Each structure stands twice: as structure tokens, then as C-alpha cells.
Amino acid sequence: MPREKAPVPDYKLTIYLPRATYEQARDYLYSPLERRVPHGRWKHFINDLITGLFSDTQIDLGLWIKGLPTNLFLLRGKTETISQLTQHLADQEVYIKSLESQLSEVNLEERKK
User: Which residues contact 25 (CB under 8 A, 6 or more apart)?
Assistant: First the structure.
């Protein structure tokens, strides 16, 4: 009996990696039990990396933290996590602006005296 076609067909891809990168990935995927990289492990590894790249969200911390250059400190993660972090940073920014405003009012009152 012939094998059924996969619902999502695969596409063959040949890539060249630097030897050090290949060896590091191979060592990561290696199974001591099988004494080799198990069948299909490369496919799942690469597929998970690519899928994660396109499903994750990125935030530039340089836009949120004074003194940090932009496009240097990029944080990548799940969309839900990044949105929570963004909300937290926005709340902190409002809080800091409120403190700065209160401080400037105190300084003005002290100057008047």
C-alpha cells in the first residue's frame, strides 16, 4: 500500500554552513543513545528556528531606556511576552514622568523661597 501524501508537502533545501556552526549544531542535536543525530532532528530543529523567527516579536530597548543607543539592544520573544513588557515599560515611563514633574514643582517652590 503506497504512503499517503503529506498534508503540507516538504521542500528540499541544501545549505552550506561554516564548519564550526555545523559542529556546534550537530553536537546539540546528537543523541548518545543512538550515537548519531536522530532521523528528522535536523528538519525539526531548522523548522522550529525559522517558525520562531517569524512568530516572535522584537522590541528595541533603546527606544525605552534613556542612554541606550537604538538598534543595539534588541529583545526578541513571544508576542504576548513582548506586549506585556512594552506595557510595563510604558507604565514605568508614565510613573517616571510623574516623579520628574513633582520634582520640578518642588524645585520651583524652593527657588521662590
Answer: 17, 45
